[in-house]
Amino acid sequence: MNWTAGQILFFLVAGGKVPSVKHSIPTLKCPNLEMGFRLQAALKMSVKIISFTVLTAILMWSIDVSSVPETHLIVPLQQEEAPFEDSSTSKDNDKKLEYHPIYHKKNHAKKDAHEIPCLINGNSFISCRKTTSGAIYLPWNFLYEYFEVSGWEESNGTFCFQHSYATVQKLKPVYKPSSSFMNFGGFNVGRRDRVRCITATEGVPLTTQWNEAGYHYPIQVAQYGLSHHAKSEMVGEPRQEILEDGEGTKDGAPGPWIVHKKAENSGLSLAQDSETSMNVLQFKTSDSLSAPGIFMPVQDHNLSCLSMDIKFASNGSVSVLVIVSNGARVRIHYIQSDTLIVSDSDQSNIYYGLGKQRTGAWIHLARDLSLDVLKGIKLREQLESKEKKEWMLTKVLEIRLRGQGMLDNLKLKSDVHKDQFFYTADWFVRHQDEKGGWPIPCPRKLIGTAVLQPGWYSAMGQGQALSVLARAFFMTGHQPYLDAAARGLWLFDVDSSQGGVKAVFFDRYVWYEEYPTQPSSFVLNGFIYSLLGVYDFKEVAQGKEKLVAERIYQAGMTSLKAMLMMFDSGVGTLYDLRHVVIGMEPNRARWDYHTTHIELLMQLAIIDGDPIFKKTHKRWQRYLKGQWARHN
Ligand SMILES: *[C@@H]1O[C@H](CO)[C@@H](O)[C@H](O)[C@H]1NC(C)=O
Ligand SMILES: *[C@@H]1O[C@H](CO)[C@@H](O)[C@H](O)[C@H]1NC(C)=O
Ligand SMILES: *[C@@H]1O[C@H](CO)[C@@H](O)[C@H](O)[C@H]1NC(C)=O
What we know:
12 helices; globular; disordered N terminus; C5-epimerase
């Protein structure tokens, strides 16, 4: 038996017993939603005592000589009182734990221990260790899988143990449907690996999650928009540098553009656009990407986003030359094509399609150039985090125009969050169908239910769209946003069996289905997101539409309050109610969904004073630390 360096053992004093946690490998693959996967952010050591007579300790074990620090025997725990408080009366999330350093390197050297077989629940053996003092050690790599817990070694040699790998994010104490949506400011939707790119045609993410060809997933689009809305609110107005505004320099000349000597029939001038009466830069040169075009070198700065208004009169393009952290120069071309993204094999040129034939109308182009570079590199493969660092944009070097047209408001900016948000809101207005829905073009199957055929609607997609549109309307007063949101409600009143999103639990409680499956699945998080969307809309709506939204919202809240406890397993939460509906095994929410459930209840507790939300999210927080509900 080779104990490799750094294997970590979980120690149980003789006489203690392994807490009897039923170990079941989840066999149900839940659809991975558009939630961030929050990993091991919290470093706070927090250990729960599992059994009254048990002292537990975590220690480092290393047999081979290696760089791993040898023994840091730090955290035996002790608890005298009854192991579980009644969770409903417990005031504090964290019980005070006493930490007694009882083992030390000196009296607990590795040679002190020998291997013994360890029989796991009567059917398999693993190799354990026993010291001369009688202490038994189980290998950590067994324990963490067996008990589904987390642990890692800090650089200072401390081993940190946690039941949960996910952490709960804080929310603002007040919820306003006009301001940041929950904690979405922390999401980086565009950077997720399954997002192929942010299209230049419409400025929204294209996902490859369920279809390699790429498609727009309304939930992801909404979350992208809401995250940029929240980021914009967090950082305030971006820093910016105006490179061209068509107003001319002091002596009435255009900005520092360079026209190549050999470029025939090329030129630029200041002019007025007859459509908008704005002063603009008019440019004329060859369309060809191999021609030098007209370019402007960019001064030293640290701005990585680009924004401009451009109107082409020919098949022109915009190219940006950037340098990335590994020293490579990359050209990003925004061209008139339907191909959304393509790159050269050596990644020196990345092409984003603006759509075919985008001549004759103003285009507002706002791009996060660092993201555009990243998505262009190794288009179909996922980048390692090391590679992501290598391909970070460090500087914009120049901007180049080709073809004929007009340009205005050319700026480099520290961010384009607002543009990214409005691209999203506009996408929802543009792509709503006659049922008021945003159909999903991929089939979906949840185990135990019939396949959702392409064209299905998600209550979560509808609801998150409402959250986007309500905010866009609040910021602009632009009626089409509000009208689209009002139509977005229609499907909430249509049964899932009829192509809508409404299900009814035991003929009594309406539920808005994230996946409107047959039979119904009753997914918790998607339902609450949909309710938040309806809430946002009802807060900005007026008249008849407000009343409709109120009715839909109240019916949903009544169901939620009545049904919430069905999702509580006493040690965690359940993702959906398929175990009730179709009798399959309960679908446990993995930790990041459990924390999502907690955050959603925290949000509802702020909106609705019913104590069920507060009481429940507090108990669910305790599950994160292994403090389970009382047993009989
Ligand atoms: C080591 O790091 C952990 C986590 O950052 C910290 O809580 C702990 O106090 C540190 N231990 C020592 C001995 O410095
Ligand atoms: C970028 O430049 C601005 C102004 O020169 C400066 O205030 C800011 O701290 C810089 N930011 C970074 C991340 O270097
Ligand atoms: C326009 O130019 C792009 C390259 O800039 C090219 O891919 C596309 O085919 C051209 N379209 C037409 C209609 O010529």
